[in-house]
Each structure stands twice: as C-alpha cells, then as structure tokens.
Amino acid sequence: MDLLRHLRYFVTVAEERHFGRAAERLHMAQPPLSQQIRRLEAEVGAELFVRTTRRVDLTAAGSAYLERARAILAAVDDAADEARRVAAGAVGRLAIGCVGSATYSLLPDLSRRLAEELPGVDFAFRGEMLVADQVEALRTGAIDLALLRPPVDDASLTLTTLREERLVVAVPVRHRLATRRWLRVADLAGTDLIVHSAGRRSAMYGVVRALFAQAGVDPHIRHEVGETSTLATLVAGGLGVAVVPEPVQALALSGVVYVPLARPVPTVELAVAHRSDRTEAHLLRTLGLVRELVSG
C-alpha cells in the first residue's frame, strides 16, 4: 500500500508540476509530500523530477515512470471496481437448465429480465432438460441453477418451490374430446396417449402414470418422447392426447387444444434448485429474480 500511495503522490506532482498545488490537492502539507517523493526516487534509483523554485519538471526517467505509474493505478482501480461488482452480484457466469414447460413459459421473460437487471453476468440456458439430467448437471457444475420438478432426493441441493401448475389434456383439434369443457382421467380410457419417455427418467412420466393409477385406468401409451415440444407436435399431428402442465400452452401450436381436468384439478410443482454450497452473489441475485418473476 505504501508503493501505491507513493505512486499517487508522484502522479499528482507530475500533473500539477508544482509541489504546493499537488499538496493542496492531496490535502497534505508540502514538506511531507516532498519527502515522500525523495523516498520514492531513492527506491527507484533515479531522479524523477527537475526541481526549480517555481516548478518541477519530469526527467526522462520520470516521463517513463509516469506512464507505468498511471497504468498501475488504473489497473488497481479497475480491480477494486471489479471486486465491488462481484461482491454485489453484478458480474459472473451462470448456466440455467429448464424442464420442458419452463423452457416455453418462463425462459423468454426470464432471459429478458436477467439481461436487463444483470447485464454484467454472462448467462447460458439449456432447455428441455429432464430432472435426472438437471440433478447430475448441478452436481458436476455443468449448470448452476435448475428449474425442475420435485421430488429430488439429493441432500446436496437446495430446492425452493416456485408454484403449483395445473395439469391439462392436450388434444388434437379434430379429436372427439376436443370440444369437451373438461375431462376426467376416466374419459381417456382407451385413447392413444403420448407421454414423456420412461427410459430417460422423465418426472412427468411418473406423474401421468400415478394419475391414471389413482383413477383406476390403464393408460394406452402409443408414443414416448424425450422433449415437450415433440410431444405437443405429435398431438397436433393427431397421433394421440397428452397430459401436460398448463404452461405448455405457451407453445401455441396450431392443431392442439387444451382441455382442463375435472376438479379436484391435479397439479405438479415447479421449483428452482442449486447446490447448497453455492453462495456467490450473482447466483443469489439470479435466484431472487427468478422468484420475483414467478410470484409476480
């Protein structure tokens, strides 16, 4: 810190070309300032100023030293500013993984809001992720936050429930059930069903199987798919119906209508998760913005 103080003294004298004015600018007496400059010259091993009774001028060594001194002070100031911004959560890198419905219903507004509120944070987004893949990506650090569906059996993660999402039935527009005001699970008996893949450990696959089991209906599964967008596309193509979270309607595909399920309407949770040992300021600020966006 003594060196930085001496550099600031030196630059001020070099800019003012006068010890008296430099001392006033530094809010100190002139003799101590002159002594500090002499000490700096002794440490450098070269005279930096040519002194007269009226002013001081830089020597050739002083001119060279001034250029480096200014660069050092600028770098120190930049480092301090960067440290303050990091501490405030204004800079950093963050990857967010989303389940299918969150990809379409939340990600557009979330990415826009994050760009506005945290322009210094470099965000990356991965959509259409299955929960098992999200959990593994959180563990390895491939992603930092996940919008996913509980339950998640991993003590290393912190989950915060964001909202409950109602389940609806996606039906082809020309299907016999498309004009219904609401549907019971029993109404889907014998109907071709499109579901998320069991082999890829989809959370929604388990939700749909449990829903049919509770209603005592054996689901007639025709297609299993990996992505929500593919599922909705197959419904639009008339290949079957699908039970999906209500936000999937954000896809707005022609050829699909969404029919509510009868009361009591089943729901699924959407939560945000991160590793419990992650406490960086930019991550915590992003968590706050996610919660604010969903609650608003």
TrEMBL record:
Family stated for the protein in its record: Belongs to the LysR transcriptional regulatory family.
MF annotations from Gene Ontology: DNA binding; DNA-binding transcription factor activity
One Pfam short name: HTH_1
Cell inner membrane found in the keyword field: no
Record's protein name: DNA-binding transcriptional LysR family regulator
Keyword terms of this UniProt record: DNA-binding, Transcription, Transcription regulation
Boundaries of every HTH lysR-type domain copy: 1-59
Domain of life where this protein originates: Bacteria
InterPro entries: LysR_HTH_N, LysR_subst-bd, WH-like_DNA-bd_sf, WH_DNA-bd_sf
GO cellular component, one term: protein-DNA complex
